[in-house]
Design brief:
Blueprint lengths: L2 H21 L4 H11 L8 H4 L18 H6 L1
Helix pairs in contact: 1-2
Length: 75
């Protein structure tokens, strides 16, 4: 993927995450700070999630012992 295209994609993803964070008033104060701290460079591309699935993204939710069960159920 071209470098400029890659960074534009990360910027779009960052903007989307930040906009989404502002829409949920229950968690807005915390999530806006977290997403803002991560910045554009903290976003990860989901390119590899599309491979072999006919362009359809697949996301796996892993149940980790250290992760809050409430957070996992929210995912």
């Amino acid at each position: 993927m071209h470098v400029v295209t890659y960074y534009l994609r990360l910027l779009k993803l960052y903007s989307h995450c930040l906009q989404t964070a502002y829409e949920y008033k229950e968690i807005k104060d915390h999530v806006v700070i977290i997403v803002g701290s991560l910045g554009q460079d903290g976003m990860s591309s989901d390119e590899s999630d599309h491979e072999g699935h006919c362009g359809e993204a697949m996301y796996y939710i892993l149940d980790k012992d250290w992760c809050s069960k409430q957070v996992t159920s929210w995912l």
